[in-house]
Each structure stands twice: as structure tokens, then as C-alpha cells.
Design brief:
single chain, 490 residues, Methylamine Dehydrogenase, Chain H, 5-stranded mixed sheet, 34 strands
């Protein structure tokens, strides 16, 4: 006697949970330098006990924003893809310990942020929940906590924990499990841009207007600090045992919470922000969510990409003091001085993907005019290694690959996973509504594409520099302007 699809999905949850645990255990115990398993690219930031599974709990994989995953992507076999059409741009694609993808999307019509719970078998939407509308970047960044709840700040300046569960009829529902207003510290017209939990279970957040806060929705306590006037936060933030990293449009900070929970600045490092916002960037300044990395603890360093006029640089700082480790030119082969993406950090290796000239359909209010107003999409992908003695950095390779998404590095299969945007006319850099997109696997040792498959042609498949996520079953889930792509092998 066969069971129903709903029953089969219920039965497979313990298996998926077990697979996640097994992969995390392998990643944690694999010997350093075992190149055959990709573990040469370890360690990565330690697991945050108040976040969901590493690799799938945040847009950038973990709370250290390493953009790595301990899960292997699509393996041997013919690659295939299907598009889950949601009529929404879906930048946040996360997967909890129960194996269910939870995604945050903005519908094309109405633009009201909407949470979707997806079927892990086919990607269809099982339940939805609309949130209060806010700014363009407000509500883009979110994470899954250790109970598989989506933690997000909505347009009402409230911190929400959104849970999924079955109702009495056996159908899936999404509901707000806990809510805390942040309006006492966030001015009217401002909005949370990024948020991340610390090792005490508090939620750190940063607003577009430069307010950094610490919220404890268990006690209702909210504390905040205003960064210098004129400094904005246009990307997410990162947390590690040493503190919280925030990059503004002028500088990178490391902060900690004082005795009463109020944020305190441990160090500040200004960077070259250039003369103006560039095409293919969403703010005038670094496009980086700061990345923790390091060869021993996974958090000895903090990395960003600056916004210097002619050639951008990878900036690496010591986490303990903020001292500069190196400032290395990147993306020179592609000739595009700009990146809106967070660097990948694993062990001593950093990977930077360029976005200069990427044709975003809109930019946040107050971002300022781009100079020049437009440019061809240059792309570029560069690997830089911090020297073993920590005295500087060395460029390993520099390519002209045009990643249309934030790449992810799997420490399980030793592969970079992303979606490339190819020009209609090979050899050119222009973009059009008819551009083809292909999922690609890239060798992190050489920067060469080892395997790829076309996922679609045209604007419906635009991945808009959004981050992909490897699911426990090996499928690659990639947000697009109209939904989610599922790339599988078999």
C-alpha cells in the first residue's frame, strides 16, 4: 500500500535531518589539507548555536558570512534545472534542519515582502506569509534560528520570528512566533538592513541610517549605538565569537556588547570609497557584507572589497586589532572595478566576484547617481590567499568569468557553485533581455569551469547577483527575479 505524498515528505524529514548532521560532522572532523574532499578550504567560522545549519541558515551560509557550505552540490550525472515560478524576486533562500526551504521574496506586483515555505521535493510553495512593506533592502537579509524560525525585521521596524508548522488539517502554515518592536531606537523612515545572532542569543542589527543595535526578544531589551553621521549600512552584518562586523559606506567596524548590552566599537578601519557609486553597485562604498575567515579558528581575519576608483582592492584586517593584513588589487583581468558581493572566505583563501556594470532594475533610495551612469557588465572572479605567516596576501588567479550570483564554496566537494550570465554575442560584455544563464561548477584551485548547464534564456532567469544555497539533497537552489531555480543531477 503506497503512502500519500504528504506522508512520504513527513517520513523523509528525519532522514534529511540526519544527512545534515552527518555532513556537519564530516566537515568538523576532516583532516586539514585533505584536498580530495575539499577540506583544504577549512576551517570556516564556527557554528553559531543560535542559528540553523551552517551553509543554509543565512544568505551567506553562516553568521560569519563565509559563503561556504559543508554540503556537496549536484554530483555525478546529467545536470538539469527547473524554475519555480513565484512572480517574485527571491534573494533569501534558506533551509532548516528539517530540510524545508524557507525563502523571502518580493513580489513583482505590490512589492510586499512574502515568506514562502517550499516543498523540498519539487520546490512548490506550501505556505505563504506577507510581511509589512519597508525599504528596498529592508527585509532582504534574514536568517534561520536554531528552531528553524525565520528571523527578519519588517517594515514596521519589528523583529519577527516566523515559524512553520502543520495545522489541525495537516496543512502547512507560517505564523509569527515572536515579535519585538525596534521603533524605540530606529527613527521613522529608517529600516533594518542586516541582522545576525551573537553567541548569547541576542540579535544584532544595523539600519540603513547607521544605527547598530542589540535586541533580546526573550527579555524585550533593545540597546543601540549611532555610527558617525553620513555613514550608511547598505549590506548585511556578520557575527563571530570575537564580535560583530559591520561595514558602512565609509569604514569597517568590529563591535561588542557592553555590560548592559549596548554596542561598543572595538575598532574602526576606513577604506577607499572612491568618488561616487559605480554602475553595478547599490551604494556609494563597499558592496561587501564583511567576511570572517582564518586558518586556525576560521575568524582570525575580516575581509571586504573597497570601492576605489580605478581598481578595487581586497582589504583584510586582523579581527583582534583591526590592523591591516593586506590591500590587494582584484578583478583586474575583467577590468571592472567593483563588487556588490560578499567575498568568500575559507581557511586562508578569499574569492571575490565582480558586479561592475550589472544592470540592476532599481537601486535603493538615496544611493546616488552612478558614475558613469552605466557600463558593460565586466564580471571577474579572483582568488587571493593570506600568507601563512599572516604578513600579507598573494593573488592566486584572476579570471573574466561573469558570475550573475553570489558564488558558494562547498568544502564537501571542493567546488565553487554559481550561475554565469553569458553574452548573446560571445566575446562581448554587453547585456540584453535575451542573455543565457548557466549553472557552473568552478575549480577553486584554477578558476576554471569544470561543468555547466544552461538553466534558461532571458530576463525570467536573471539571478540578479543573489546568493544560491546547496540543499541537503545536493540540489542547488538559486533565487531569480521571478522565483527560484532548482539545479539537480541524476
Amino acid at each position: 500500500m503506497s503512502s500519500s505524498p504528504a506522508r512520504r515528505r513527513t517520513l523523509r524529514r528525519p532522514l534529511i535531518t540526519g544527512l545534515i548532521s552527518a555532513f556537519l560532522a564530516v566537515a568538523a572532523t576532516a583532516p586539514a589539507g585533505a584536498a580530495s574532499t575539499g577540506s583544504v578550504y577549512t576551517p570556516v567560522p564556527p557554528h553559531n548555536p543560535y542559528a540553523g545549519p551552517d551553509g543554509t541558515a543565512t544568505m551567506h551560509g553562516d553568521t560569519g558570512s563565509s559563503d561556504t557550505t559543508p554540503l556537496p552540490g549536484p554530483g555525478a550525472g546529467t545536470l538539469a534545472s527547473n524554475r519555480v515560478a513565484l512572480a517574485s524576486a527571491c534573494p533569501t533562500v534558506l533551509v532548516g534542519a528539517d530540510g524545508y526551504p524557507v525563502i523571502l521574496c518580493t513580489p513583482i506586483f505590490g512589492q510586499v515582502p512574502t515568506v514562502h515555505l517550499l516543498d523540498p521535493d519539487d520546490g512548490s510553495s506550501l505556505a505563504t506569509l506577507q510581511l509589512t512593506k519597508g525599504s528596498l533592502l529592508g527585509g532582504v537579509y534574514a536568517y534561520l534560528d536554531n528552531e528553524d524560525r525565520l528571523v527578519v525585521a519588517d517594515g514596521s521596524r519589528s523583529l519577527l520570528r516566523v515559524a512553520h508548522h502543520r495545522n489541525t488539517d495537516g496543512d502547512w502554515e507560517l505564523s509569527v512566533d515572536r515579535s519585538l518592536s525596534l521603533a524605540s531606537v530606529i527613527p521613522e523612515g529608517d529600516a533594518v538592513t542586516g541582522l545576525s545572532p551573537d553567541w548569547q542569543g541576542r540579535v544584532w542589527f544595523a539600519t540603513g541610517g547607521g544605527v547598530v543595535g542589540v535586541a533580546d526578544d526573550r527579555t524585550g531589551t533593545v540597546r543601540s549605538l549611532a555610527l558617525p553621521a553620513g555613514e550608511r549600512v547598505a549590506n548585511s552584518i556578520s557575527t563571530a565569537p570575537e564580535g560583530t562586523a559591520v561595514t558602512t559606506t565609509h569604514a569597517t567596524y568590529l563591535l561588542s556588547a557592553g555590560a548592559d548590552g549596548t554596542p561598543e566599537i572595538l575598532w574602526r578601519q576606513a577604506y577607499d570609497r572612491g568618488q561616487a557609486r559605480k554602475p553595478g553597485l547599490l551604494s556609494w562604498g563597499s558592496g561587501s557584507t564583511p567576511t570572517f575567515l582564518g586558518p586556525e579558528t576560521g575568524t582570525e581575519y575580516v575581509a571586504i572589497v573597497d570601492n576605489a576608483d580605478t581598481t578595487v582592492h581586497l582589504e583584510v584586517y586582523r579581527t583582534d586589532t583591526g590592523a591591516e593584513v593586506c590591500s590587494v588589487p582584484v578583478l583586474q583581468a575583467a577590468g571592472g572595478p567593483g563588487s556588490e558581493n560578499s567575498p568568500i572566505g575559507a581557511g586562508r583563501s578569499v574569492f571575490v566576484a565582480g558586479t561592475y556594470g550589472y544592470p540592476y532594475p532599481a537601486v535603493p533610495e538615496g544611493a546616488g547617481d552612478a558614475v558613469p551612469s552605466s557600463a558593460d557588465f565586466a564580471g571577474g572572479l579572483t582568488r587571493v590567499d593570506v600568507r601563512a605567516d599572516g604578513t600579507g596576501c598573494t593573488q592566486v588567479w584572476d579570471t573574466t568569468l561573469r558570475s550573475a550570483a553570489v558564488p558558494k564554496l562547498s568544502t564537501a566537494d571542493g567546488t565553487l557553485h554559481t550561475v554565469l550570465r553569458d553574452p548573446v554575442i560571445p566575446g562581448t560584455k554587453g547585456t540584453s533581455l535575451l542573455d543565457p544563464y548557466r549553472y557552473a561548477q568552478i575549480d577553486p584551485e584554477t578558476g576554471l569551469v569544470t561543468r555547466s548547464v544552461r538553466v534558461g534564456v532571458g530576463s525570467l532567469y536573471d539571478t540578479l547577483q543573489m546568493a544560491g544555497t546547496v540543499a541537503p539533497d545536493g540540489s542547488y537552489l538559486q533565487g531569480t527575479v521571478t522565483g527560484v531555480l532548482r539545479i539537480t543531477a541524476g
